[in-house]
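Exercise 3.2. Students should predict the tertiary structure of the chain below and write it as structure tokens, then compare their answer with the key that follows.

Predict this chain's 3D structure.
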Amino acid sequence: MPRSAAPPDGARCSIARSLEVLGERWTLLVVREAFRGRTRFAEFRDALGIATDVLTVRLRTLVEAGVLERQAYREPGSRERYSYHLTPAGHDLRLVLGSLQQWGDTHRPSGHGPATVYRSAVGGEPVRVAFVDGAGAEIDVRDVVSTPGPGWPRIEAGPDIDAGPDADAGPEAAQPAVSVPEGRPPVDAVDGTGQPVSVATGSREG
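Answer key:
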């Protein structure tokens, strides 16, 4: 594998770390139901039609990862049970669910239109998930590239790797290449203008 294409290891990759929690079947659907107000085991089970043992594992994983927190409750004449509530980390997953729904509505439509529409709680306007720069301007996904961050591991050239013209520059020169969208000119920043971008909801309809 060329030096410039070497991926970061799983411990450094935030996507890989996130999938350790969210990558199993049913997990994000449990989170979706939490956003819909479900808090009790039976409510999740009945809404999803999920097997009891599978739901137990998914809830435990989400609690251990800090996405949900357990709160004890007791109904009259019953033993103590636990309800499950979104933490701040859990609430941040609304962006993830919004992105997945937005992609599914576009690329895997049901033929019946969106099942859910995200709106601003303040003005009621429809909102969408998008990349935005530091000034709040929306950036087209085709104009966003991935660049190495401070957590990307340094990779030294081995005997089977062509070190290239900067081989004498030492391991500090062994930087991974920027991922550039196909058909786009290479750039040195994530939005083509030198501005960093982040994922956020924006009110502009696409």
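Discussion points: Residues 1-7, 159-181, 185-190 have pLDDT under 50 and may be disordered. The first helix runs from residue 14 to 22.
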